[in-house]
Write a structure and sequence with these properties.
single chain, 504 residues, alpha/beta, TIM Barrel, Rossmann fold, 3 domains, 6-stranded mixed sheet, 19 helices, binds NADP nicotinamide-adenine-dinucleotide phosphate
Length: 504
C-alpha cells in the first residue's frame, strides 16, 4: 500500500508559496500527496520549498517527483541533479519518490542505493501519445530497479485502451495504472476499484491530460468509495464536459445514500463505449448529442414512444449487456408545461425540428395540444408537423400569429453565444415562452419575453424533470428532486437561484 488514502493529490506550482498553499489544501482532503518538484521554476525554489516541508513535517504520505523534460516533466537539470533533489526530498520527509524509466535506465543501481535508499521507489513509465498495451514487458522493465511499486500512465485513444491498462493493474500487485486523455477521465474514478494502487487528481492545475480536480474526484465522484458493489451509471456525449448531469444524478445518489456513481463519458465512437459496458459494469446511461438517434440501432428493445420520437436519452442495461431505450425529454416537457398552460386547449409553437423539438412535439401532441413547427429548413419542419398531426408556420408569419406558448428547441442563445435570440421581441406574441436551453438559466430570449410581461420557463425545469425520470427508471425509487435541483443550481451559479426556487 502506498498511502492510506488512495486518491493522491497532485501539488504542482511554479513558486514555493503557491506550492505550499496547494499542499495545505490537499491535506484537507487526503493524506497521500505527490509533490511535483519539477514544476517549481528553479532549483533554488525547490530547495526553499523542501526546507519548509522539512520544518513543518506534514503528517502525510508524500511522494516526491522531479520529472525531467525528457520524460514529460519540467525539470531541466541533469539526472544527477534530479537524484540530489529527490534525496533532499526524502530527508525533508517524503517517504516515496517517483523515478521515471528514462532516468532509471541511465542510473547505476548502486547510485540509487546510495542516494535514495531511505525512500521507497515508485518506478514510472509514461506514454503520452501511444498506448503500447504490452504491459507485461513494460512492468518487467520497470521492476529491474527493484521498486516497491510501479506506475504506468498511458494515453487512451479509446475506452478499450484504458480498460486494458486497468485490467493489467487488477491482476498485479502494487501497480498504479493511470489511463490518460479525455476519453479516460471516468476510468480514473474507476481505477481504484479495478486494482490500481492510487489514482491522481491535481489540487489546481492539471499535470497530465484528462485529469479531474481533487475536489471533483473526491466530493462529486467519491472515487475512493467506489467498490465492486458500486453501481455505475453515466452520460455519453461529444462534447460532454459541459454536462450538469453528473452533479444532478450524483446528488440524488448521495441524498438516497445509494452505493452508485454517475460518470461523464466523452464518446466519439459509440461502439467503443458499448464494448466497454460489460467490463466497467455500467448499469444505465444517459445519452446526449450526437448519439441520441444513433443509439437506437444498438438497442435490444425500445419504449414505443422513444421509437416514435426517433431519439433515446436514457438506456437501461439489463443482464450483461441487454440495452433498453427510453425518452425522458418527453416527460420533462410535460412536467415543465402542464402546470402553466392547459395542454388540451392550447396552441404551441415549437422552434426547431431536431431531436429535442421532436420530443416536445410528440409530448404536446399526445397531450392534446395543437402543435405548430417553425424551423429554418422548411422540409424538416413539414416532416415533424406531419408526424404529430400539426401544422408548419413560416418565420415571416410570426409577427401576425398568436400562440399560447412558444418553445425554443434550437441551440440559439446557448452558452457561450448568450447574446443571441432565435426570435425578436415583436415575434413573441404569446402568453408563455419556454426555452429548452438551461445554460444560461435566463437566455436572451427569456429576457426579451420577460420585458414584454410574458411568463417564462427555463430549460432547467425540463432538465431536472428528465433527469429525475431517468434516475427513477434506473433505480425504481423516487428521485431526490430537491437535492438534484440544488446541485444543478449551484453548478449554474447563484445568480438566479432565488427566482427559480420561488417559481418551482
Ligand atoms: P439538434 O437535434 O441539433 O436540433 C437543433 C435544431 O435547431 C435543428 O432544427 C436545427 O436546424 C436548429 N438550429 C440550429 N442552429 C440554428 C440557428 N442558428 N438558427 C435556427 N435554427 C437552428 O439539437 P437538440 O438535441 O434538438 O437540442 C436543441 C436544444 O435543446 C439545445 O440547446 C439543447 O441543449 C436543448 N435541450 C435541452 C434539454 C433540457 O433538458 N433542458 C433537453 C434536450 C435538449 P438544422 O437542422 O437546420 O441545423
Amino acid at each position: 500500500m502506498i498511502g492510506k488514502d488512495k486518491i493522491c493529490a497532485v501539488v504542482a506550482a511554479e513558486r514555493p508559496r503557491s506550492m505550499w498553499a496547494q499542499l495545505e489544501r490537499a491535506l484537507r482532503q487526503t493524506r497521500t500527496v505527490e509533490l511535483r518538484l519539477d514544476w517549481l521554476l528553479t532549483e533554488k525554489e525547490i530547495h526553499a520549498f523542501l526546507r519548509r516541508v522539512a520544518i513543518k513535517r506534514p503528517r502525510a504520505t508524500l511522494i516526491a517527483t522531479c520529472r525531467r523534460i525528457e520524460a514529460g516533466g519540467r525539470f531541466r537539470g541533469t539526472i544527477a541533479n534530479q537524484l540530489l533533489v529527490l534525496a533532499e526530498a526524502i530527508r525533508a520527509g517524503c517517504s516515496w519518490y517517483d523515478l521515471e524509466i528514462e532516468s532509471i535506465c541511465k542510473c547505476p543501481p548502486e547510485l540509487l542505493d546510495v542516494l535514495l535508499a531511505e525512500g521507497r521507489q515508485l518506478a514510472s513509465a509514461h506514454f503520452f501519445r501511444a498506448n503500447p498495451r504490452n504491459w507485461k514487458s513494460i512492468a518487467a522493465e520497470l521492476r529491474r530497479s527493484s521498486p516497491v511499486a510501479i506506475k504506468i500512465a498511458a494515453n487512451s485513444s479509446s475506452l478499450a485502451d484504458g480498460v486494458s491498462l486497468l485490467r493489467f493493474a487488477k491482476s498485479n500487485r502494487n501497480v498504479v495504472a493511470t489511463p490518460m486523455g479525455d476519453l479516460a477521465l471516468p476510468l480514473r474514478c474507476l481505477a481504484l476499484r479495478e486494482g490500481s494502487a492510487l489514482t491522481y487528481a491535481p489540487v489546481e492545475r492539471a499535470t497530465a491530460p484528462g485529469q479531474m480536480s481533487l475536489d471533483v474526484m473526491k466530493n462529486l465522484y467519491r472515487a475512493d468509495r467506489i467498490s465492486g458493489k458500486t453501481r455505475v451509471y453515466g452520460v455519453i456525449g461529444d462534447p460532454i464536459a459541459h454536462s450538469l448531469s453528473p452533479q444532478m444524478q450524483n446528488a440524488a445518489f448521495h441524498a438516497r445514500k445509494m452505493d452508485a456513481v454517475y460518470l461523464p463519458f466523452l464518446v466519439h465512437d459509440l461502439r467503443d463505449f458499448l464494448a466497454a459496458i460489460k467490463s466497467l459494469g455500467v448499469r444505465g446511461f444517459s445519452v446526449t448529442l450526437p448519439h441520441k438517434q444513433k443509439i437506437l440501432r444498438h438497442l435490444d428493445d425500445c419504449d414505443s414512444l422513444a421509437a416514435a420520437i426517433g431519439a433515446v436519452n436514457t438506456v437501461v442495461v439489463r443482464g450483461d449487456r441487454k440495452l433498453y431505450g427510453y425518452n425522458t425529454d418527453y416527460i420533462g416537457v410535460l412536467r415543465a408545461l402542464q402546470q402553466r398552460i392547459s395542454l388540451t386547449a392550447s396552441r404551441v409553437l415549437i422552434l426547431g425540428a431536431g431531436g429535442a423539438a421532436r420530443a416536445v412535439a410528440f409530448a404536446l401532441a399526445q397531450a392534446g395540444t395543437a402543435v405548430c413547427v417553425c424551423a429554418r429548413r422548411p422540409r424538416e419542419a413539414k416532416m415533424l408537423a406531419r408526424a404529430v398531426g400539426g401544422e408548419t408556420v413560416m418565420r415571416g408569419q410570426l409577427r401576425k400569429e398568436f400562440f399560447d406558448a412558444i418553445v425554443n428547441a434550437t441551440p440559439v442563445g446557448m452558452f457561450p453565444a448568450v447574446e443571441h435570440s432565435p426570435l425578436t421581441s415583436n415575434e413573441l406574441n404569446c402568453r408563455l415562452v419556454f426555452d429548452l436551453i438551461y445554460r444560461p438559466i435566463e437566455t436572451k430570449l427569456l429576457q426579451l419575453a420577460a420585458r414584454r410581461g410574458i411568463e417564462t420557463v427555463s430549460g432547467v425545469e425540463m432538465f431536472l424533470a428528465q433527469g429525475a425520470a431517468q434516475w427513477e427508471i434506473w433505480t425504481g425509487e423516487r428521485a431526490a428532486i430537491t437535492a438534484m435541483r440544488r446541485a444543478v443550481l449551484d453548478a449554474l451559479g447563484t445568480g438566479k437561484k432565488k427566482n427559480l426556487r420561488a417559481r418551482a
